[in-house]
């Protein structure tokens, strides 16, 4: 058994599946590919179970679980398991990320189930799971605990800077590689060069890229709603730009 070397933490719906697909096909890397969610949902299975999955110590090993970025309570667990982890996050413009997340759950029939579960414990029930209605409920919600829960987490997950700063309470800045999804999709080769350098592996082999096969959801984003949500995220994005040392033009309106 051996400890994994890297984690792709998130954010969900930002290209993490694309990146783990690329890494799964890299000759220097072993990854199970699927999300293990060990540090969030499977922690009771124990270290032996987790490390038994990584059977190739001669390779650089790791996994992708997007719950690791958002569920800040697991960051200390991750550090305690391996303080030398190399970490990667991919960030997508948060309004589009939230809408993609909402669309996926809607198509899969998960939104109704999540709202039903939420309403069993919340004082004020969610009565409409439409994207804009759900956002208005999120804005009016004064409970930090409730905002963190499904389905309101669709919007809470876009507060990237808070998640990054909490992660860096435990890890050094140089252990974290931040990729911007829009740049990754446009120039994948440049992003993958950063990944290979960060993980100290050879260059990625040329291959067809997964992002050519995109999901087409039936519901489109209303631009008036998008602008309203963008204003909510704006101060968080500005703090993120300050942390990164550069702005992301495609995130501005």
Order of helices and strands: EHEHEHHEHHHHHHEHHH
The largest pleated sheet is described as: 5 strands, parallel
Portion in helices: 40-55%
Order of strands across the main sheet = 2-3-1-4-5
How many domains would you count in the coordinates? 2
| Beta-strand percentage range | 5-15%
Summarize the model shown.
The protein is an alpha/beta fold and about 250 residues long.
Structure description:
With 253 residues, this protein is of the alpha/beta class. The protein folds into two domains: 6-93 and 159-212, P-loop containing nucleotide triphosphate hydrolases (Rossmann fold, 3-Layer(aba) Sandwich); 103-157 and 217-233, no CATH class. The chain contains 13 helices and five strands. A five-stranded parallel sheet has the order 2-3-1-4-5. Strand 2 (29-30), helix 2 (46-51) and strand 3 (60-64) form a beta-alpha-beta unit. The mean pLDDT is 94.
